[in-house]
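Bench notes, afternoon.
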Amino acid sequence: MAVFVGAAYLSIAAFATAASPIEERLAVRPDVLMATVPGDGSNAGRAVATLATVRGVEAVAQIREVAIEGADGTSELGVVAECASLVSVLSAPDLACGPGRVHLGPGGEAVTEATVHSAPYLGGFALGLGPIQDAPLRVDPADVDRYAPADLAPEARAALPAVVIEPAAFPGGLGDLPVTRLAIRTDGDPASIERARTAAQVALPTSVVRTVGEAATDAGALVTELGRVVSLGVIVAMLLAGASLAIAVISGLVERRTPFALLRLAGMPIARLRAILVLEAAAPLVAVATLSAVLGMLVAQLVIRAIPSRDVPLPDVGVAGLLAVATAGAIVVVVAAMPLVGRITGAEANRFE
């Protein structure tokens, strides 16, 4: 079970690292702070008003993360935001908002009739908004344009939202679609960034406010630390498995001491007898550990492939290294019990009544 969990986690860790936080996946400029808006988003307006008075803050974009379910059954992720305001916080080149109400990015499919659901999951964690809200979207095909060229480099394509919907595309208003993020553009001065961070956290006490660099560092540190814990857990579990196998081998040896003692009298070297017992313990250990690791990687691949619009990384080769180290440690524990073989199968084991 430990090997299965470890293999699954290490396989997903590479994907988690590639699926970077929204600050990085939106190609946000280094001088832009991204602030989560917890709850139902009702405090977003107050936060925007407060930030407008902070020296060094140039603009604030309100972002609503949404899932767009088309009338034909298609589904994709996007954002509801004023396109010009959103583009001003992005660092990708050649972005320009047209006069339409729906703007397509790289890979985005034309949307004219759909249901837009609140989906605050682009940053990796649900924000606890309660029931998912939705709003109908109907626009004329002439109101659909592109804000990003289709021939962007692959890294730029992956760093832009597929669809940007103008708030004006919802005649009934956006009351049911809560603001989930604020993109705070500053003049780049470190003092301005810190003033904006302080103001945002005062207005939104439970929010997470960070730049793209801080987001990448935090995400990488979390994945690395969890990887260490999981790896340590696998190694300890395998050592315990080795200890259990060593006990089982010695118990079986006690029950078969007479046949083994006779083998020694017949000329079998004690080293060969010990090798047989180690092989008897190692074979099932290696087989079960390998099968568990393969199953863990397979389950991880199936989970990752179920996530739309994401590249699926190959299984992490670190799983093989971890499995080799853990298995070797377990076998060493078994070998450590082998000196008892000589004592148990000595000449006195051949004495009969």
